[in-house]
Amino acid sequence: MPHGASNGHRHNGSAALTPQLAALQAVLPARGRVLIIPHDYPDPDALASAAALHLLLKARFGVPSRIVFTGLASRAENRAMLKHCRYSFTLATRLQLGRKRPAALVLDGVPWSGRVTVPPGVRVVGVIDHHPQTRAKKGFEGLMDFRPGLGATASILYEYLKAADVAVPPWLAALLVYAIATETLDFSRRFTPLDLEAYTALLPRANMRILGDIRHAPLPRPYFAHLAEAMDHAQVYGRVAWSHLDAVEQSEIVPEIADLLSRIERVTWTFCTAWRGDDLLISVRSSLPGARCGALLKAVVRDQGSAGGHFNMAAGVLNMTGQSLEEREERREELVRSLLGWIERRSAEAEEPLDIFAHPLVDKKPAAG
Predict the structure, then answer these.
(1) Is the dihedral of CA 158, 161, 166, 171 positive or negative?
(2) What pLDDT score does 163 carry?
(3) Class of domain 221-354
(4) Per-residue pLDDT tens digits for 270-285
(5) Residue 101, SS3?
(6) Strands 279-286 and 313-319: what pairing?
(7) Against a cut of 0.85, is the pTM above it?
């Protein structure tokens, strides 16, 4: 992480800056607003982290900021988080910069991964991320706070706020708690002592009504139609389960189906594919400690699209503009076969043999006459 001299920003309190806070201060502009950019179609971790960074910049450094993202946060829980967030979010398509070239901090992703859209003319001065496949870009000299293997980016922002002695309001504590819980699947997935510290420290401060509203947000009717379609298309192959959705408007339902399939007894790998316009979306999950889902999906997608993720979860997208329906379906089937092949090799490494034949998740019996 690069360290630089102070750029003259005033901060509240008299405590000396930690190395992380000093590195952040060093990249902040002397004047003007900073943009906070989470990854596209932000999830709870990205949304909560963006709100926490907005508070940190204002309370510690007196720097105004604006949260900007690409894509919609359409999942019910994500909409509930936005409803309870006290800071406004701006869609990148509505951002008007004029001749300004504002500085930006990217959260929960890296701008060179294909999963973060940086508006033209914006200068990225820092990146904070926890994904295991995070890599520095040659020539980038801004802040790089990469914590591969950490459960959530929200835990990093908790550490910043704690070091800056900034009080976390109850509504934000609820968002951060929910983010950490979802990223670690209630600590059933990979996590670190920092994730556990952040969760246990923030939970007593959290507004429990807000946390309940997020966890139990009302679901729109199309959700249940997608759920029924996913269960109808679901297949099981040994310890692997997967499904497909023919047409979705938003991407959030795809990882949700992959998560749901992971609840099947004895299943250790799941994935879901879906068409969203010309894009084929993929989400992969695994409960195996050495699954390396992000690396696996990158190996499958290669240069045909973009992919990335954690040890136990990953997402990718392939664009198929200009291809016929038959060509698209052939590529989707090829992707499924390739995924199964890679998973079979990973399962062999883990001494988890797969069955020979796939079969439906639910056996369909003829209706009584």
Answers:
(1) negative
(2) 96
(3) alpha beta
(4) 999 999 999 999 999 9
(5) coil
(6) antiparallel
(7) no
User: Above 60 in pLDDT, residue 356?
Assistant: no
User: Which of 41, 55, 46 minimizes the C-alpha distance to 178?
Assistant: 46
Q: Scanning the structure block, which residue is given the tokens 């900034």?
A: 166
Place of tokens 């004047």: 31
The verdict on domain 19-215 having CATH code 3.40.50.1000 is: no
CA-nearest of 163, 103, 92, 158 to 127 is: 103
Distances (CA, A) of 240 to 17, 34, 344: 48, 44, 9
CA–CA distance, 63 with 202 (Å, rounded to integer): 24
Q: Which residue intervals of 69-202 are DSSP H helices?
A: 76-84, 153-163, 170-183, 193-202
Q: How far apart are CA 113 and CA 100, in angstroms?
A: 25
Task: Find residue 128's DSSP bridge partners.
Answer: 107, 145
pLDDT digits (tens, 9 = 90+) for 127-143: 999 987 656 677 788 89
- Domain extents in the chain: 19-215, 221-354
The vertex-193 CA angle with 171 and 14, nearest 5°, equals 60
